[in-house]
Design brief:
It is a single chain. The protein is an alpha/beta fold. It has 3 domains: 229 residues, Rossmann fold, CATH 3.40.50.300; 232 residues, P-loop containing nucleotide triphosphate hydrolases (Rossmann fold), CATH 3.40.50; 38 residues. It is built from 17 helices and 24 strands. The strands form 5 sheets. It has a 9-stranded mixed β-sheet, sandwiched between helices. A 9-stranded mixed β-sheet has the order 16-15-17-18-14-19-20-21-22, with helices on both faces. A two-stranded antiparallel ribbon has the order 1-2. Strand 17, helix 15 and strand 18 form a beta-alpha-beta unit. Helix 14 packs parallel to helix 15. The longest helix is centred in the C-terminal third of the chain and has 79 residues.
């Protein structure tokens, strides 16, 4: 078991369990130096809880522990829990010990025994290893063999007094009625719940054919705790209690870095792409290219050198890679390099909580910075709707807390797709996502075409337009939606309308050119005529000037001739003035 010191290590009066989520519920762990009752039905995980509590104490808190087994032998317990990878053998040599306290058949038959001998051996072992934690597993098995209620109460008080005197953190496990998961199997042991300082109840139910496990702290003297029932799973490392991480998100840190969606025009619509560490939800009917957009994001993430995980609930990884290759999304090179890990979640059995735990473990092991889940709505089939929604909510919170860029797809039904852009998503997580992209169909003239729109994108300016999503062997691209007469056209109708408009435009261009040529010819004729008239005007002006000069010349010549004639005649000379 990997040991990680918790932030709650410094809380006084608490013994940490090392169980993910449980220490947060109890604000630090079980009461230190006091007694806790852990009750649950068969298969609810009581023994696992007790062992994990002891192993974590020995490894991380320097508190040696003793496991007192009243039902199964220590060898059998060690054999049963080898799969968890806990170092039981190594710990048994110095800080961990088993005490086999199964009553023999002779004592059971006679009913003449008590816990005195076992407590004496326990005291010696406690002094030997300096034990600070003790687990009494299946105490009810022994108590049920005592002859009467008085004897049972006497032995329980004996055990309780021993725990108080030795000031060790004690954990007592007991069976409960599998039907209600609350009351002890035998009502004579009910007073145990009133004697202990802390009472924890484990439940294991089957809801609609799906196994559901939950844990609830019934009481905790002197401490606040989360009173609600919390789901848990038993994973590869033991207990994993699911709690919301919203309280951890208030660190005031938010990345302003952008990462590409893998589709250039979609980045433009988003004002630069997704925010790093954001949660992106892609909704739509089957076949609207949700997986394709997710694959484009995964490819672009690997191109940046960021480790990426692609979790598919619909198809095997090989089929996903093959299908994406048809639209020029090449994932094979990144699978070979180890940058990309493909997971087929169809092979993971269990409820929604189990799926979440497996995904978190796989992402952590792969050290992924980008995560694709296709589709996340499958979680609704692995448990009741309320549980699945809570799991999806914790998934988004966990990814945000870890700084993982998460892209989820979700199926929507036909009615919600046509009314409120997929508001009826099975998990109702559209309000939690930072970016919500919706894909839909437009059926016209026997064709089905895809449309894409951005419903919301927090913190970014984004396009309000609907674009046509086009898939081809060259890749994924977006085209502007074409409207004519108030109707949206896609596919062949759009091509035909564009071709008709193109022909009409070409005809208009030819007519315009012909008209321009005609006008230029008329202009040339007018220019020639204007030049001819200008020449004629200039000729007339010259002729007029010539006539004027001729007339003046003749007048002067006539006047000069008359003057010479008068001079020649003498009599015609001008007379002098008379007296």
């Amino acid at each position: 078991m990997r040991v990680v010191r918790s932030r709650l290590a410094g809380i006084a009066g608490k013994a940490q369990t090392g169980i993910t989520g449980f220490d947060e519920i109890t604000r630090g762990g079980l009461p230190h130096g006091r007694t806790t009752l852990l009750s649950g039905g068969p298969g609810s995980g009581k023994t696992i809880f007790g062992l994990q509590f002891l192993i974590y104490g020995a490894q991380a808190c320097s508190e040696p522990g003793i496991f007192v087994a009243f039902e199964e032998s220590s060898k059998r317990i060690v054999k049963n829990f080898e799969s968890f990878g806990w170092p039981l053998a190594a710990l048994q040599r110095k800080s961990f010990s088993f005490i086999d306290a199964q009553p023999s058949s002779e004592l059971i038959h006679s009913g003449n025994f008590d816990l005195g001998g076992m407590l004496a051996a326990l005291s010696a072992k406690t002094r030997q290893i300096g034990a600070r934690r003790v687990v009494f597993d299946a105490l009810d098995v022994v108590l049920s063999m005592l002859p009467d209620a008085t004897a049972r109460k006497r032995e329980i008080r004996r055990l309780h007094d021993w725990l108080m005197v030795n000031h060790v953190s004690g954990l007592i496990t007991a069976k409960v009625d599998a039907e209600d998961g609350i009351h002890l199997a035998n009502h004579h042991f009910g007073f145990l719940q009133f004697m202990v300082d802390c009472s924890v109840v484990l439940n294991h139910r089957v809801n609609l054919g799906v196994s559901q496990r939950s844990i609830r702290v019934q009481k905790f003297r002197g401490s606040s705790f989360n009173e609600d029932e919390s789901p848990f799973v038993i994973g590869a490392k033991g207990f994993d209690v699911a709690i919301a991480r919203k309280a951890d998100l208030g660190n005031g840190k938010a990345s302003f870095a952008r990462v590409t969606s893998g589709v250039k025009r979609l980045d433009t619509m988003l004002g630069g792409g997704y925010y790093r560490g954001a949660s992106v939800l892609i909704t739509g009917l089957p076949g609207t290219a949700k997986t394709t957009l997710s694959g484009a994001f995964a490819e672009s993430s690997c191109q940046r050198g960021e480790r990426t995980m692609f979790v598919s609930f619909d198809s095997d990884s090989g089929q996903v890679v093959r299908n994406l290759k048809s639209v020029n999304i090449q994932l094979t090179p990144y699978l070979k390099s180890g940058c990309l890990k493909m997971v087929s979640a169809r092979n993971i059995a269990g409820n929604a909580e189990t799926l979440l735990v497996h995904m978190k473990r796989l992402v952590t092991e792969h050290r992924a910075r980008c995560l694709v889940i296709d589709p996340v709505s499958t979680l609704s089939k692995a448990g009741n709707e309320l549980t699945a929604h809570a799991v999806a909510e914790r998934l988004l919170d966990w990814a945000k807390f870890e700084g993982i860029t998460l892209v989820c797809t979700s199926l929507v039904d036909e009615a919600s797709n046509q009314s409120q852009y997929g508001a009826g998503t099975p998990l109702q997580i559209s309000t939690l996502a930072d970016t919500w992209i919706h894909l839909n169909y437009l059926v016209q003239s026997g064709e089905r075409n895809r449309g894409i729109s951005i419903i919301k994108s927090r913190g970014t300016a984004h396009s309000n337009q609907v674009r046509e999503l086009i898939l081809s062997d060259a890749g994924v691209t977006l085209a502007d939606i074409y409207t004519a007469g108030g109707e949206v056209l896609m596919g062949t109708l759009r091509w035909e309308k564009e071709r008709a408009e193109l022909v009409a435009q070409e005809v208009a261009d030819v007519g315009s050119r012909l008209k321009r040529v005609s006008l230029e010819a008329e202009e040339a004729i007018l220019r020639v005529r204007a030049k001819s008239l200008q020449s004629e005007l200039e000729a007339k002006q010259i002729e007029k000037a010539l006539l004027l000069r001729t007339a003046q010349s003749r007048k002067r010549e006539f006047a000069g001739a008359r003057a010479r004639m008068r001079k020649l005649r003498g009599a015609d000379a001008p007379q002098q003035g008379r007296r």
